[in-house]
């Protein structure tokens, strides 16, 4: 069995070779994946950049020997648009394992807004800083109850917030989610929120789900945080409502387009915070990626079902 590794370090190569003596590991750099002249069984990527350098619509069609491809990140929206639903190989990704750090980032952004830290960091005079807001007793609506959304809900509950979840399917009846709404009930959930956290995947169904009607349904003084994908938010509509004074403050780790132009109007608002897609990075992520990859290599090499398989119909 041969597995091509994209972007793996020498240490990762050595560890995997010592763990799986029956598997031949090689670098994807040694192959022309576009031509399809590949006899490997699997392609495993350790970074988004490494996968993007190798993965293409042509590879999906041409590399007939591949039976498994792994993407390191949780978001696979770009690849789904390349015809992945018709691909002949199994596709896995890093969903679930990034929940911890993305949830931490979401809470950090929310606290930045509620504690008015963005004003203090900019050097605004104390007398001009908006009065901070407590989370205790407030209501949060978390859109997306997957590996990220559940971690966000758990954290916000610990702050004393009532947490409602918006989801496509039922989730376990965990005690830190007070009420559940299905995706088609989004406009029923939004008016309840003092804070909205976006943690859903970007699919054909979720694209631009937060449009002008959704923003108008939110309270005038609500906080909005997006740590999933920029495509869930209609950027023009958000710019319009923020410019009109609707929504108290907004924090975005992802935008559409990304990166957002330096002169985009959203960057000019004092109550908008934008971070450069940092949420999915942490000191422990590489270890979780290795654990996931090595688990799937073991299962792949022994003919067992893989974990973290992308649902091609749902798009995540």
Overview of this structure, please?
The chain is an alpha/beta fold and 316 residues long. It is built from eleven helices and twelve strands. The protein has helices at residues 10-19, 48-54, 57-62, 77-80, 99-114, 117-121, 147-158, 186-189, 212-217, 235-243, 285-301, and strands at residues 2-6, 24-27, 42-45, 68-70, 90-92, 139-143, 162-167, 179-182, 195-198, 223-226, 249-252, 272-274. A seven-stranded parallel sheet has the order 8-7-6-9-10-11-12. A five-stranded parallel sheet has the order 2-1-3-4-5, sandwiched between helices. Strand 9, helix 9 (212-217) and strand 10 form a beta-alpha-beta unit. Helix 5 (99-114) crosses helix 7 (147-158). 41% of the residues are buried.
